[in-house]
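Bit of a strange request maybe. I'm writing a small parser for structure token strings and I need a real example to test against, not something I typed by hand. Could someone generate the tokens for this chain?
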Amino acid sequence: MTLAFAAHDPDAIPVHLLAEDVVQSWLDTQDEAVRKWAKAHRFTGAIGQALTFPRDGGVAMAAVGYGTPKSRSRARFHLAAGAARLPAGTYALHADLDPQTLEVEALGWLLAGYRYDRYKDQSAMGARLVAPEGIDATRVEAQAHGEALTRTLINTPASDMGPPDLEAAARVLADQFGALITVITGDGLLAANFPMIHTVGRASDRAPRLIDMTWGNAGPQLTLVGKGVCFDTGGLNLKPGASMGLMKKDMGGSAAVLGLAHMIMATGMPIRLRVLIPAVENSVAGNAFRPQDILTSRKGLTVEINNTDAEGRLVLADALALADEGKPDLIISMATLTGAARVAVGPDIAPYFTDDASVATALEDSAQTQADPVWRLPFHAPYESMIEPGIADLDNAPKGGFAGTITAALFLRRFVEHSPYMHFDIYGWQPSDAPARAKGGVGQATRALFAALPRALDL
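Reply from user aminoacidic:
Good idea to test on real output. This should exercise your parser:
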């Protein structure tokens, strides 16, 4: 799997990116043989079309469709749709695009080459792209590798991606960029005052842990907190089989923050970065936590357990309390937290919460340019009473079924007092194949955040 641009090659095959409304004018500039070839193969410039033009037994040039404004609005990574159909070779892109769009389309080409091949050989994408002039190739490659890391972690089944394996992946990333990492494991969590992380993970034979990675020694401080539930049975509130089928992806928040951390470190962003991952399995055993238990969090807030399947917010709460103690300039949590988020916006959009309008504006502007859609939901204060059960400070699973995404976000916000806070309730899974987005694990909001952080942190 190659997620890097090809070296400069003077003999690279020209590939022309052609919208439907410019195909004819482009053909008018070509010789008759090219025009006849395009007509014979019915090349119209639709998204997904790719046509090579032969010469002396080889390929003289290629054309890839760019569709219409309407068709482009219904998809992303339009170049990748056609590039994936090109034969093996090194290509040089010819496209009339603004620099930002060119960068996104070049990223799509790289991501089209992603393969998850740990358990089965996968045919590699043979078409390589020379970095187009005018883009920051290092930045694009950093995004591609960060996204690939996220996808691979999510795609790996829980048999090979339990809490120890997630720790190992974080250590590999730390070693790659010279970051520092500490891990608190098992009963050490109780001694260090992370009681809810311990409680959620204690029923598994793979010990719960808190992964703490730091990098950078100057600039504003950013703390990323990722939900690392490596498999979620639902605990004693056991999930039905159909709901358990994708629970290897319940560590998608941790995969997302590690992918984002890769992008930040690979490009040398001038910040102080901290990544916190509570890594657990929510398992069933005699020592599993129970409905109606009341837990005391690191922050001292008590939590009544009304559903053991609402465990992600519990482990995040202890990690967020630790994050807040450091008073960073921004805390961001990412988690595959609620089914209600998917009901609200579907699998393709990352809903998020923040009280900071300027950070929200920076994010939404970058989401538009990065083809990485997000949607802001409210920390709606009148719903605070829904997470207050009376017998304890907080309820981990309010009854009634209303506003589940919002009440979960409000729950998490109770553990952050001293820093600006953003929370993302992501899905982390691509349900079907799409250009540059193979079915399986996928990053959400990370590229939008990566582009927004310099503005959000006043770099």
